[in-house]
């Protein structure tokens, strides 16, 4: 029988604090360049359902936003 180890906080670093979460590029996640922030803002604006008036105008041929993105399933690649 295998005993599963429960989840625990990361071990403290040399200064006694937990490790700082890092992004893919090795930088602290909260520190963003202006270009990165602009790209994130544009992606946030694009990620919404289509307006109802477009469904009426196109006679329901466009029913949903095909490029809709879930924040956890699909990454932006920034």
UniProtKB/TrEMBL annotation:
InterPro entries: Ribosomal_eL39, Ribosomal_eL39_dom_sf. Pfam families: Ribosomal_L39 (PF00832). It comes from the Eukaryota. GO terms for molecular function: structural constituent of ribosome. SUPFAM superfamilies: Ribosomal protein L39e (SSF48662). GO terms for cellular component: cytosolic large ribosomal subunit. Keywords: Ribonucleoprotein, Ribosomal protein. One of its GO terms (biological process) is translation. PANTHER family: LARGE RIBOSOMAL SUBUNIT PROTEIN EL39 (PTHR19970:SF0), RIBOSOMAL PROTEIN L39E (PTHR19970). HAMAP family: Ribosomal_eL39. Belongs to the eukaryotic ribosomal protein eL39 family. This is Large ribosomal subunit protein eL39.
